[in-house]
Amino acid sequence: MSGMEGRHVELVVEEKKDDAVDRQKVCPFLLRVFVSNTGYHHKPSEYLKGNTPQNELQIYTWKDATLHELTQLVKEVNPEARRKGTKFNFAFVYPDNRQSLYRLREVGSTMTGVKGPDDLKTLGQLRINIGDYMDIAITPPDNWGMSRKGYTGNFNHRPRPY
């Protein structure tokens, strides 16, 4: 007998972020988040000339905030997004310094109730610049695939011969 019988050892592994910030000492920045419940991102043209889309959330956060953390914050104020299987597609919207327009860059996605590869990506790892906007396209689970043009939602659908 080794003397270890009946002993239970619990091991807790905490994800260590490379770009971790001491949130007690570092001041957060304002992240202006624009949410779309259509499954599509807002058009970059909606950000021109000082305009912004509706459905704005103002979140004070740090560069080590993960997409999962941001998903949780959006779910707090958006009850429909709490349903399991709801997709969140994240993009940064930023001004193009060479032209007078905005660009949109998709940076990751999460899903309510499902762990995914982008959950632990941080704003710092995704190279956010303070002042960029975040655009989140939310797709409810019953609308998957419907956000793609031409999708019929029926795999057995075939055009009828004339």
Automatic annotation (TrEMBL):
InterPro entries: SAP18 (IPR010516), SAP18_sf (IPR042534). It comes from the Eukaryota. Keywords: Repressor, Transcription, Transcription regulation. One of its GO terms (molecular function) is transcription corepressor activity. GO terms for cellular component: nucleus. The keyword Ligase does not apply. It holds the Pfam family SAP18. Belongs to the SAP18 family. This is 18 kDa Sin3-associated polypeptide.
